[in-house]
């Protein structure tokens, strides 16, 4: 009898050994035998607050995904990317319905400075229509600095009118290339694009919000024009970039005309067929300092279209500049200069109309002034 019991016991031990990996084990393994670590369901907490006003900040990185039970309204609310969202669970099967944020429609028809009661104000002409398909709109209006706060509220969900508010001004830097000085090489022109922006915001009674952004082009400013723009209108950093104030930027700078202006009037002598006639008188209307003759090039053009070069040391067949100052190397600020023929009959029968061209050497810019004179 004992011998049979021993055999039966050994057989049972062998059977249970082969089934040891199948009986009673709660671990999950992959096909390769690696353990799979399951998430502990104890780490899925549901929080509790007495009222909706007790809910923490949302959206917020610390609260995203958390589920709260709100006692006074007997509902669950989840923190989503759009804010607190009501979760309704009921019926014979699970049915989750989420709060929908407001829908915004708007049209900005005009924007700019207007005179109101003798005061310049900035006005936005706008029409709007805002709806909330599953609740009511709690607050709505314009945000002019992109901080998410309504700065100019709308009184109704639909409306139209002028709203006094300054939009957000945005400057975008841009470069273009063309041959600005006609030297055959491309020059980098720096450009500022001016845009304005406004946000239309609507928030419903469950805290869900919608933001629609208006972003419109207004104007373009080139570095060749920027010095003529009112000081302070362009941000200083952008102004410095356009004018390359530190000398390291890419912007091409057109040479600025030196601060000089001339005036020409007829000489008292009447010209004839001779070749030594006094023609007209030159003098400065505006001059920052004495101007070296080497820095300018003077020509006169007669009725026949032929240019004649004038100089203080003119050779025969040109026109001569006769000085009445103390320095032969400069045209002094208060000096009067006579322009005369020098072996060439430039005006042999009065009256003659002479075109005057005074250019600054090296920068290709003409001095502003009379432009022409009638010699008679």
Written description of the protein model:
This protein has 3 domains: 44-87, 3-Layer(aba) Sandwich (YefM-like fold); 104-243, no CATH class; 260-375, Immunoglobulin-like, CATH 2.60.40. It has 2 helices and 26 strands. It has helices at 2-18, 236-243; strands spanning 28-29, 35-36, 46-49, 67-70, 75-80, 83-87, 103-116, 119-131, 137-143, 152-153, 158-164, 168-178, 187-204, 209-222, 260-266, 278-287, 291-292, 296-301, 307-311, 318-322, 330-331, 337-342, 352-360, 365-366, 368-369, 372-375. The strands form 6 sheets. Strands 15, 16, 18, 19, 20, 22, 23, 24, 25 and 26 form a 10-stranded mixed sheet that branches. Strands 9, 10, 12, 13 and 14 form a 5-stranded antiparallel sheet that branches. The protein is elongated. The model is unreliable at 19-24 and 91-95 (pLDDT under 50).
């Amino acid at each position: 009898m004992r011998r049979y019991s021993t055999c039966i016991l050994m057989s049972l031990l062998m059977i249970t050994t082969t089934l040891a990996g199948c009986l009673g084990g709660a671990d999950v393994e992959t096909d390769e035998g690696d353990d799979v670590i399951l998430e502990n369901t104890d780490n899925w907490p549901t929080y509790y607050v007495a009222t909706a006003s007790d809910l923490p900040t949302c959206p917020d990185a610390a609260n995203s995904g958390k589920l709260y039970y709100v006692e006074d309204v007997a509902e669950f609310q989840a923190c989503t990317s759009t804010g607190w969202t009501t979760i309704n669970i009921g019926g014979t099967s699970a049915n989750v319905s989420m709060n929908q944020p407001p829908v915004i429609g708007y049209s900005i028809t005009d924007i700019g400075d207007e005179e109101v009661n003798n005061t310049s104000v900035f006005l936005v002409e706008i029409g709007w229509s805002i709806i909330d398909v599953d609740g009511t709109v709690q607050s709505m209006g314009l945000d002019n600095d992109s901080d998410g706060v309504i700065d100019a509220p709308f009184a109704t969900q639909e409306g139209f009118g002028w709203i006094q508010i300054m939009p957000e001004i945005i400057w975008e830097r841009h470069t273009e290339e063309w041959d600005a000085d006609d030297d055959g090489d491309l020059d980098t022109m720096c450009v500022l694009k001016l845009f304005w922006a406004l946000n239309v915001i609507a928030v419903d009674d469950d805290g869900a919000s919608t933001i629609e952004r208006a972003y419109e082009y207004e104007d373009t400013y080139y570095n060749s024009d920027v010095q003529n723009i009112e000081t302070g209108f362009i941000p200083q950093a952008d102004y410095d970039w356009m004018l390359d104030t530190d000398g390291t930027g890419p912007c091409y700078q057109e040479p600025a005309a030196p601060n000089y202006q001339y005036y020409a009037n007829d000489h008292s002598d009447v010209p004839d067929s001779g070749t030594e006639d006094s023609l007209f008188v030159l003098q400065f209307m505006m001059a920052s300092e004495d101007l070296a003759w080497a820095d300018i090039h003077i020509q006169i053009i007669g009725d026949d279209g032929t240019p004649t070069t004038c100089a203080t040391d003119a050779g025969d067949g040109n026109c001569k500049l006769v000085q009445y100052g103390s320095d032969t190397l400069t045209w002094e600020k208060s000096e009067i200069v006579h322009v005369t023929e020098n072996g060439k009959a430039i005006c042999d029968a009065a009256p003659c109309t002479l075109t005057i061209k005074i250019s600054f050497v090296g920068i290709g810019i003409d001095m502003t002034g009379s432009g022409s004179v009638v010699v008679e």
